[in-house]
Amino acid sequence: MTKNKKDLRLQYKNLRKELTLDDLEEKSLAIANTILNLPIWEKTYFHVFLPIEEQKEVNTEYILHLLSGKDKEIVISKSDFESRGMTHFLLTDNTKIKKNEYNIPEPVNGLPVPSQTIDVVFVPLLAFDILGNRVGYGKGFYDKFLAECKPETIKIGLSFFEAESEIEDVFELDIKLDYCVTPERIYAF
């Protein structure tokens, strides 16, 4: 059964609310362990979102540990709500992180990294379908950011839940995922 983005947003926000903190940590760790099976480890620049705890997003701390253990360059972003654009910075030991007014943890400053440099992007989402379409919060930050990346950049969604059969109101400008990782499996598109 196909569903529209608005219904899926509501459904998955509610499903997330039902997760306990233990569920959240357990599933986030399972996702990080599953990521080890992706064919991405020869890449250098990895973009990771820092989770909005209040929205019960995937805790990417485990992924950050994996990446730093493999000596990868880790990139995090700052959002500009007026332009709906994102600025990217290298995550270093000196990076100061502060939550913005929407509770999104962001770098205060740092070494800028152009979108074109990024090899792999871990994409936050609420829902996705078996075709690689995703539903985010509907602000378009990631669609805009992913459009700025080079075509071969690998886009990996992270989800606590399995795929929907189809999202009905997909737009031409929506950028599809290459993979989506859940605690159970990897979807390749």
Automatic annotation (TrEMBL):
Pfam families: 5-FTHF_cyc-lig
Chain residues that bind substrate: 52, 57
Keyword Nucleotide-binding part of the UniProt annotation: yes
Residues that, per the record, bind ATP: 5-9, 134-142
Top-level class of the enzyme under EC nomenclature: ligase
Entry annotated with the keyword ATP-binding: yes
UniProt cofactor(s): Mg(2+)
GO MF: 5-formyltetrahydrofolate cyclo-ligase activity; ATP binding; metal ion binding
Signal peptide residues on this chain, from the entry's feature table: none
EC number, as in UniProt: 6.3.3.2
Example GO BP: folic acid-containing compound biosynthetic process
Reaction(s) this enzyme catalyzes, per UniProt: (6S)-5-formyl-5,6,7,8-tetrahydrofolate + ATP = (6R)-5,10-methenyltetrahydrofolate + ADP + phosphate
Alphabetized UniProt keyword annotations: ATP-binding, Ligase, Magnesium, Metal-binding, Nucleotide-binding
Coiled coil: none
Family: Belongs to the 5-formyltetrahydrofolate cyclo-ligase family.
Name used for this protein in its record: 5-formyltetrahydrofolate cyclo-ligase
